[in-house]
Each structure stands twice: as C-alpha cells, then as structure tokens.
Amino acid sequence: MSDDHVYLTLAEGHEDDTRWAYGTGFEDPLHGVDTTVSEGVDAGELAAECVALADDALVSAQRLAEWVTRAPELEEEVALANIGLDLLGQARLLYSRAGQVDGTGRDEDSYAYFRDAGDFRNVTLAELPGGDFAFAIVRLLVLSSWRLAHFRRLVTHPDPVLAAVAAKGVKELTYHRQYAAEWAVRLGDGTDESHRRMRAALDGVAPYLGELHTAHDARDELADVLRQVTEAAGLPLPVYRPLPGSGRAGEHTEHLAPLLTELQGVARAHPEATW
C-alpha cells in the first residue's frame, strides 16, 4: 500500500482542502447551540465524560508542545504545534461544558490548573514522556484514531454542546490521524534505523492499548487503522500486553505529576494574576 493510498483511505469522506482546523477559521462551534442540559441526560455523567475527554486533550497538547524547537524540521514543528492547539481548543470547550453542568460553576482554568494528578482522568498513554519522533508519531496515530472514532459517535449525543464540540473535533482529528499515518508509513518504509525506531515505538505503545478499549468502544476502528498503516509501512501490528490500572480511575504513571507541575506552575504561583 502506497503512502497516497493510506492518505486517501483515511481521509475518505473529508474532501475539505483545509489541513489545519486551528487558525483557518474562527467561527464559534457553539454559536446558537442550546446549553440547557437535555431531558434524560445525566448531568453528572455528562460532566465526567467532558472532563475525561478534556484531560486527554490537555495532556496530549502539553506533550506535543515539547516538540517545539525539537522537531526534525520546521514544518513538522509547526504541524505538531497546530495539532496541540486543536486539542487545547477541544479541552477548553469540554472543561467549560463540565463546569456548566456539574453544579460547581468552575471555569476551564480551574480544571486545567488547580487539580492534582490524582484528579485527572486522562488515559495513561497521553502522559508518557515524548521519547523520539517515532514514538510521538505512533502515539499520535493511536490517540487520534481512537479519539476520532469516539467523536464520530458523539456527534449524535443527546447533549447539543457535546455534539457540537464533537462535530468540530471530527474535522480536526481526521487531519491529525492523516498526518500521523503519512509519517508512520514514511518512517516504517524508510531507512533501517527509522524502521527500527518505529518498531520500538509500536512496542512501547502496545501495553497501553488495552486501556483505550475499556475507556470507550473504538476497538474495531483503531485496529483497522493500525492494520492499514502497518501494512503500508512494512511494520508488525503491536501485540497487546495490557498493564494494570487506568488513568480513567485516576491511576497514573509517575510521569503525570511532573508534567502538570510544568503546566500549572505559573497559574498556581500567581492564581489571581491577569494580563
């Protein structure tokens, strides 16, 4: 399978020429959306889902930000930064919705900056250290494919706000997945060294795939993407070796706390500061 074939297959149904949703259009995705919690929607469950999805996005965005000045090329630095900004935008909308419906009235900063690691509900794959570029690409491929599958389901969620956030996110995540897939094929089918690093990255991600399957039902979609991309790249499919514990239950690796210290340091040192 050629690079172009993977590109076209994964982008099927998304013919918009826009490559990066962030920065190419600033329309408010919630404009005109009724923010009232719909009848039959459990506000507590809705808030919990919004927080978990926002935590995934925020932590992933922070890891992607670490590639600024470190990516192999300037173009890739800009691309990874844009992906991180897309995810940050999703996190902000989701945190705001959680604060509207959970009865606390908290704003997005309260969720992002003033919770400790044990209060975060992101999946553990998102919080792992960046490693090399191959690992960053494999993780991005897995997380964007997994999140995209879930957001496609959420487009029909009975909560109109979550459905609107998902609709915007589907466009963004389609390009995140596409970007990662192209690089995965390029590296896997490249030099002996790039191939070796991609195999190592797949091995590094494999133990965390089981948690994704329990967080929401996207097993088939994720497996299909990984099959397409690894076949095109001449790489083996990762073998699932699930680890105990779950970030969704607040059980995190030792890597999350220092990441949050870096993320939250200024806000906690100057909690009432304004521009």
TrEMBL record:
Gene Ontology cellular-component terms for this entry are:
cytosol
Any idea what this protein is called? Answer: Phenylacetate-CoA oxygenase
PANTHER family assigned to the protein according to its UniProt record, in alphabetical order = 1,2-PHENYLACETYL-COA EPOXIDASE, SUBUNIT C (PTHR30458:SF0), PHENYLACETIC ACID DEGRADATION PROTEIN PAA (PTHR30458)
Q: Which domain of life is it from?
A: Bacteria
Query: What are the recorded Gene Ontology BP terms?
Result: phenylacetate catabolic process
Q: Which InterPro entries does UniProt cross-reference here? A: Aromatic_CoA_ox/epox (IPR052703), Ferritin-like (IPR012347), Ferritin-like_SF (IPR009078), PaaA_PaaC (IPR007814), PaaC (IPR011882)
Task: Tell me the lineage of the source organism.
Answer: Bacteria, Bacillati, Actinomycetota, Actinomycetes, Kitasatosporales
Q: Which organism is this protein's natural source?
A: Streptomyces mutabilis
